[in-house]
């Protein structure tokens, strides 16, 4: 499952990855949130918090992500998880939440606040309230 975290604001989007991740999670939550932020702000920063992750059914997700031009606008990404996640993600790049031209840093779960600070650093001017629908 992929959920948008309530701390998300403007061009800084946090996602919690837990349980089983499906193609639908990716296509209905992850990519639309990044696309919307890219359209509104021109640049995006992402925080991924990996909690109780069980497995994934990526299907065509990786190919779709590689072909999507908006993901190139993700300039910074913080990934929260244990050391095993850093090794696992680096060994399968490009995975669906690792972007090749992005400054990526890994944080242990006990450094969650530090991860939010880093991913949001210097973004004050780009973070503005969402436009009313």
* Count of discrete domains: 1
* Tally of strands: 5
Strand content: 25-35%
Q: Strand order, main sheet: write it out.
A: 1-2-3-4-5
- Weakly predicted, low-confidence segments: 91-96, 125-133
Provide the helix percentage.
Answer: 25-40%
What is the typical, i.e. mean, pLDDT?
A: 76
Secondary structure tally, helices: 4
CATH architecture: 2-Layer Sandwich
CATH topology: Transcription Regulator spoIIAA
Largest sheet features: 5 strands, mixed
Distance between the termini: 27 Å
Pfam families: SpoIIAA-like
Protein name: STAS/SEC14 domain-containing protein
InterPro entries: SpoIIAA-like (IPR021866), SpoIIAA-like_sf (IPR038396), STAS_dom_sf (IPR036513)
Organism: Methanofollis fontis
In short:
The protein contains four helices and five strands. With 133 residues, it is an alpha/beta fold.
Descriptors for this entry?
5 strands, about 130 residues, STAS/SEC14 domain-containing protein, globular, alpha/beta, SpoIIAA-like, Transcription Regulator spoIIAA, STAS_dom_sf, single chain, SpoIIAA-like_sf, 5-stranded mixed beta sheet
Secondary structure layout plus pairing:
Blueprint: E1 2-4, E2 12-21, H1 23-41, E3 44-56, H2 61-67, E4 74-80, H3 83-91, E5 103-107, H4 112-120
Parallel strand pairs: 2-3, 3-4, 4-5
Antiparallel strand pairs: 1-2
Report on this model:
The protein is an alpha/beta fold and 133 residues long. It has one domain: Transcription Regulator spoIIAA, CATH 3.30.750. Helices cover 33% and strands 29% of the residues. Strands 1-2-3-4-5 form a five-stranded mixed β-sheet, with helices on both faces.
């Amino acid at each position: 499952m992929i959920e948008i975290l309530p701390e998300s604001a403007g061009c800084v989007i946090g996602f919690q990855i837990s349980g089983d991740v499906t193609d639908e999670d990716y296509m209905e939550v992850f990519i639309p949130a990044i696309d919307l932020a890219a359209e509104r702000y021109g640049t995006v920063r992402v925080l991924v918090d990996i909690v109780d992750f069980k497995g994934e059914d990526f299907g065509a997700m990786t190919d779709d992500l590689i072909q999507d031009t908006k993901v190139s606008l993700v300039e910074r990404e913080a990934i929260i998880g244990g050391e095993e996640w850093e090794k696992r993600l680096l060994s399968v790049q490009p995975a669906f939440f690792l972007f090749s031209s992005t400054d990526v840093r890994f944080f242990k779960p006990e450094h969650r606040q530090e991860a939010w600070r880093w991913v949001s650093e210097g973004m004050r001017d780009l973070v503005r309230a969402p436009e009313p629908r």
